[in-house]
Specification:
Number of domains: 5
Radius of gyration: 37 Å
Strand order of the largest sheet: 16-17-13-18-19-10-22
Helix content: 40-55%
CATH class of the largest domain: Alpha Beta
Number of strands: 36
Shape: globular
Largest sheet: 7 strands, parallel
Length: 1089
């Protein structure tokens, strides 16, 4: 098997193992019952579909029956036992899966193509990992048998017994029971069946048959010579000439997002933007941005440049009304025009595995509060559908006077009419999001037809604005050339100075010029004196009869004086030349200094200190940034006018997109429709999970620019479909922060890697979309001086602007080799609270009690900490899920914990995944664990990711709560470096360090071995009275020996070894009770009595 196939097959297997997730307590699921299956399902269809269907509507619904629901942990445990794999310190969170999904339409006709057997069920029952061909053959054979079993007799009345018999035999065949089955009624069987196959398998299968440059680079990396962007002048890899070339004024973009014009990008941000704007001619690259280094900021500027490029193409077109042709006919004589490739190739799509990242970027882009105050008026005046962006848009179908149904568009005002400046970006992906985009485009069409006043002059105005920006760029280029000339002249001058016996230091030109002139004055006197002496000597020349000795003496004196005179004259000539050069150099330097001062321009000087260099941005001042921003605004005017001239194409795009099935044989139409939709909504985002559905009918290389946000959190297979559809790919992220969320632990992934013959580059806990595109990037950075392969990353960003000290120092030291530069000088507070105790599943109750007391005091001093109407001021983070859960419950008792209304999960207490992309003034990192769980504690600090994320969530204060002696004993660089930074900070800023533990958990000297250890909190005994299916796992009720009812929640159930044996109905158990939370009493551990 070829390497590409092995990689894709391995990813397909991993995705198969992720299929079949089901939450048994989902309200949309119905329980199965024994007996009349046909009657049960038929009645459900009648209640949910038939009775609610509008007259004349087509039947599109159906039923999915989920058979043999089981805990996925069974499969994970089997794989570990079969391949002798170690159990990780922290188990991945896994829930329930179904074994088989059987689909029926509304008339209970069997739907073979939608019936689905999970690979997890295959492994569970067959006790082996199948090849894809073996599994596919098995599934096809099963579906064929079911097709025969559920075949309808000619007389439909006879179908019920046939159906019931087939269902009973199927349940028996796979060894399950009705109690382990559920069913769901779907309004649209095709679009609503979302938990069947993996979101990515279809694209992975397509990738097997597809070759694109970007896909091949994604899989196999860049094979050419890499370019190391090392900007540290103390490094042996320092490459000043490289930066001098990339940062030439001609390489700067013409467009810029209209954020505050006082601030420029940092050196490496600008380098990344210039590379993306065309300096790097490759189509795939990555940016590695540590926390707070402005990844979103640079993306905004790249988006702005792409919008400007599209407008430039529109402005130069001789005929802007685009007409379709025979090949793009979509209905009768109606056809859609195709956007010119120069416009389509600059479309923008943002994708991420992180739903929050997808939402945040599209919500942030059009915010007025982030626009420069001096440009808000112009941006509002340009009016890129500002009213629509601040309204609630919808539509409804009504019957008109002629009895025909027509769609009425509804635009409702909101409470924030000035929140957004325009309809620049929307979330796509899911079907409801795409429906919202289509509704927005319909409103755009209506506004263009009924309210917009056409203004063709915007094209000529844009060209003028563009020329104005180009002129400024040309002036900067001329200035850069002058600077280069001055530098070259300076080098020549230093040579002349050295030849003149003078200092080659040109830093103080006025003094040097004064010294030269002083020397020339001295030489002038000397030359005059020597010339006078020679004149006098002529009068005293010995006569013809003078003694020979006197003649010789005279000649020697004359020759010596002549030699001195010639030497002085030669030196004066050299100094005269030097004086002229100094005067010219001083004049040029003074002129440049004046220009720099007047325009706020700084030339690129790679010799300055590292920190100063990183904070700099050469060649352009605020004048250019304002002109760039205005050109972006001008481009929006052009875009709106162009859409107005092509509103028929926009309406055609809506029609085609809504009826894609009709045009499936001519995907050129669907591509044309997408390009118009993406032109109307310049930035469309999607999660990877929804990407393949959104782009189901878009083929290879059809999208313009793909930007992947938080790429370090995306498993590598998630991005395959997006990459193969995109002509340009840029990923941004940071592998040193949160890793991808996995349902399989690292040892299982390695085992699968060995099974398929692929390396950990593709299957491991560290593999991500970011790491693969890093390898595909020509431009990047080697952390290692010897250029070790695993030290290569993409284009690095180094200026951090989020956290004060020492949070910045901790992050920089443990994760970034001290390469980051502080852009926010602020001294925060820190401390390590050394709290110890016995751990139960890593949770140390003494640490929870200490934190509760600490936070209670803080809340008394600052009531906003506990005010749930105010943004979070404090986050509590732990490496361990159980510690986070127990802390959330403990801190709930003091009114600190906040919960999401929908998921009911804690939002201010959690593991690092809860807080990615978030920040708060104060963060507590609760390490948990004790000496008995040393393996877990070592896992928590084995790699810097978790400590890095925790420290960089804190803007002002960062504290650690944990057993200091335990973590110092691990030999962990992460723990040791963090503690060392804190110690030094305590020494330098004793007033900003707090480690005081003033309650019963305060650590004492180690207890001698012969003394008894402190007793654990008293445990109670009881009997398990019920075990039920929860959202992700199971939960149980215990009747305690004190007569009280106690709840074992899902987290505690999952954390209990051999839970299915220990926590079963009738079992006698012991447990540790917690304080009452709400109306329930909970427990934090359960053991066999």
């Amino acid at each position: 098997m070829a390497e590409k196939s092995r990689i894709l097959e391995a990813w397909i297997m991993v995705e198969h193992l992720s299929e079949g997730d089901i939450k048994v307590n989902d309200k949309s699921l119905y329980k199965f019952s024994d007996g009349d299956f046909h009657g049960l399902l038929k009645n459900a269809v009648a209640r949910q579909l038939t009775e609610k269907r509008k007259k004349g509507s087509k039947k599109s619904g159906g039923i999915i029956v989920y058979l043999d629901i089981f805990e996925f942990r069974e499969v994970v445990v089997f794989l570990r036992e079969k391949y002798r794999l170690e159990t990780p310190p922290e188990e991945p969170r896994v829930g329930n899966k179904f074994g088989l999904a059987v689909c029926f339409d509304e008339d209970l006709n069997f739907m073979k193509d939608m019936t689905f057997f999970t690979e997890s069920e295959y492994i569970r029952l067959k006790k082996e990992i199948p090849d894809e061909s073996v599994f596919s053959a098995f599934e096809e054979e099963l579906k064929t048998e079911l097709e025969q079993s559920f075949e309808k007799p000619e007389d439909a009345a006879d179908y019920a017994p046939v159906f019931n018999d087939a269902m009973a035999k199927l349940i028996g065949r796979i060894g399950t029971s009705p109690e382990k089955c559920r069913f769901r009624v779907l309004k649209n069987l095709e679009s609503d069946a979302v938990n069947l196959h993996s979101f990515f398998i279809g694209d992975l299968e397509t990738a097997k048959k597809t070759d694109t440059d970007n896909l091949n680079d994604y899989l196999f990396g860049y094979s050419g010579k890499r370019v190391d962007l090392d900007s540290k002048n103390s490094s042996p890899k320092f490459a000043p000439s490289l930066f001098e070339d990339i940062l030439r004024p001609k390489n700067y973009p013409l467009g810029r997002f209209p954020s505050c014009t006082k601030f420029s990008l940092s050196l490496m941000q600008q380098t990344a933007v210039n590379l993306s704007a065309g300096y790097d001619d490759r189509k795939i690259r990555s940016v590695n941005g540590p926390p707070g280094t402005g990844k979103t900021t640079l993306l905004k500027d790249i988006f702005a440049e792409l919008v400007v490029r599209q407008a430039a193409c529109m402005a130069e077109m001789s005929e802007r009304k685009i007409v379709g042709g025979e090949k793009t006919r979509y209905f009768n004589n109606a056809s859609i025009g195709e956007l010119p490739d120069e416009i389509a190739e600059n479309g923008i799509v943002v994708a991420s595995s992180n739903n929050g990242a997808v939402q945040n970027i599209v919500k942030e882009l059009p915010l007025i509060k982030d626009i420069d105050e001096g440009l808000i008026g112009e941006l509002k005046e340009a009016d890129y559908f500002m009213k629509l962006s601040n309204s609630k848009l919808s539509s409804k179908w009504v019957e008109n006077e002629k009895g025909r149904r027509e769609e009425v568009l509804i635009c409702e005002e909101t409470d924030e009419p000035d929140k957004y400046w325009g309809l620049f970006s929307l979330e796509g992906g899911r079907s409801e999001n795409m429906a919202n985009i289509i509704t927005n485009v319909k409103h755009i069409c209506k506004m263009l037809e009924s309210e917009y006043d056409s203004d063709p002059e915007v094209y000529s105005q844009f060209r003028k604005d563009c020329e104005a920006v180009k002129k400024l760029r040309e002036q900067a280029a001329a200035f850069a050339d002058e600077c280069g000339k001055v530098l070259r002249d300076s080098a020549v001058l230093r040579e002349h100075l050295a030849a003149s016996g003078m200092s080659a230091d040109t830093s103080d030109m006025p003094k040097m010029l004064a010294d030269v002139r002083e020397r020339r004055r001295g030489l002038g006197g000397k030359i005059t004196q020597l010339s006078s002496m020679l004149s006098t000597m002529k009068d005293t020349k010995p006569g013809i009869f003078a003694p020979a000795a006197k003649k010789r003496e005279y000649n020697d004196t004359v020759n010596e004086t002549n030699s001195l005179l010639l030497a002085a004259m030669k030196e004066d000539e050299t100094l005269a030349k030097t004086e002229k050069e100094l005067e010219a150099f001083t004049q040029s330097a003074a002129l440049l200094e004046k220009q720099k001062s007047e325009k706020g321009i700084k030339p690129l000087d790679m010799s300055i200190g590292y920190d100063e260099l990183q904070l700099s941005n050469p060649w352009f001042g605020e004048e250019y940034r304002i002109a760039q921003s205005r050109l972006f605004i001008s481009a929006l005017r052009v875009r709106k006018q162009f859409l107005a001239e092509n509103v028929k194409n926009l309406k055609a795009a809506v029609n085609i997109w809504h009826n894609q099935k009709t045009h499936i044989e001519n995907k050129r139409l669907i591509k044309a429709a997408w390009n118009w939709i993406n032109l109307a909504i310049p930035v469309i985002s999607s999660t990877f999970a929804s990407f393949s559905r959104m782009c189901a009918n878009l083929e290879r290389d059809t999208l313009g620019h793909l930007f992947v946000d938080e790429a370090g959190q995306a498993v590598p297979q998630a991005a395959v479909g997006a990459v193969l559809r995109s002509r340009n790919v840029m990923v941004v992220g940071d592998p040193s922060q949160i890793k991808p969320v996995l349902t399989l632990d690292g040892s299982v992934l390695k085992m699968l890697g060995r099974h398929f013959g692929v390396s950990e580059k593709y299957l491991s806990e560290n593999a991500s979309a970011q790491t693969l595109v890093d390898q595909a990037s020509r431009y990047g950075f080697y952390y290692d001086e010897n250029k070790a392969e695993d030290s290569w990353i993409g284009i690095p960003l180094w200026v951090h602007r989020r956290c004060g000290y020492p949070m910045f120092t901790i992050s920089n030291r443990i994760s970034y080799h001290d390469m980051m530069v502080q852009g926010k000088e602020y001294n925060g507070r820190t401390g390590w609270f050394d709290v110890r105790g016995n751990a139960n599943d890593k949770y140390v109750s003494e640490q929870g009690d200490f934190l509760a007391e600490k936070l209670a005091a803080m809340m008394r001093d600052d009531p906003e900490i506990g005010d749930k109407t105010v943004k979070d001021k404090v986050y509590i983070i732990s490496p361990f899920a159980n510690v986070a859960y127990m802390l959330a419950q403990r801190l709930r008792s003091i009114g600190f914990t906040r919960f999401d209304e929908k998921s009911h999960k804690a939002t201010n207490v959690g593991t690092i995944h809860t807080f990615q992309g978030k920040e708060a003034d104060i963060v507590f990192m609760v390490l948990g664990a004790d000496s008995k769980s040393k393996g877990a504690s070592k896992w928590a600090v084995d790699e810097p990711n978790m400590m890095n994320v925790a420290a960089t969530r804190a803007k002002k204060e960062f504290y650690i709560v944990g057993d200091m002696s335990l973590y110092k004993s691990l030999g962990s660089d992460v723990a040791d470096e963090t503690a060392a930074v804190m110690r030094k900070y305590a020494k330098d800023h004793p007033d900003l360090y707090d480690s005081k533990v003033s309650f019963a958990a305060e650590p004492s000297e180690p207890v001698p071995a012969e003394k008894e250890k402190p007793a654990e909190k008293p445990r109670l005994s009881g009997r398990v009275v019920s075990v039920r299916d929860g959202r992700q796992s199971k939960y149980a009720q215990i009747k305690g020996s004190d007569g009280q009812d106690y709840t074992v929640n899902e987290t505690v159930y999952d954390a209990t070894p051999n839970a299915s044996e220990v926590i079963k109905v009738g079992a006698e158990v012991t447990f540790r009770p917690l304080k009452k939370s709400g109306k329930y009493f909970y427990v934090d551990s359960v053991e066999k009595a």
